[in-house]
Amino acid sequence: MEKWQLTIEKVSNGFILTGEGAENCGPEVIEENERDELEEFEKLAWTVWEYFGYHGSKHDPERLLIKREKNK
Which residue range(s) make up the domain with 62? Predict the structure, then answer.
C-alpha cells in the first residue's frame, strides 16, 4: 500500500499545502482574494482533487464537479 499525505495549513491570507506520496506537492500557496470570498476555497478543493487524481475528464462517464451558483 502506498502512503499519501497532504497537509493543509490555514494561514492569515490563505492556505499552504505540502504533500508526500506519488506526486509530491509544494509547498503550494493559495492566497485569498479579497474581492472573491469563494475563490481561495475553490482553488483549495481543485488542488486536493488534482493531488489525489480525482479531477477526471469531460469524457469520463461519471465525474465530480465544483460549481458556483448564485441565488436569484
Answer: 1-72
For the four alpha carbons of 49, 8, 27 and 38, in that order, the dihedral sign comes to: positive
DSSP for 16-72 reads EEEEESSS-EEEEEEE--TT-TTHHHHHHHHHHHHHTT----TTSSS----------
Q: What phi and psi, each to the nearest 5 degrees, are found at residue 59?
A: -90, -5
pLDDT at residue 69, rounded to an integer: 86
pTM: 0.74
Count up the domains in the chain and report the number: 1
C-alpha cell at 41: 476555497
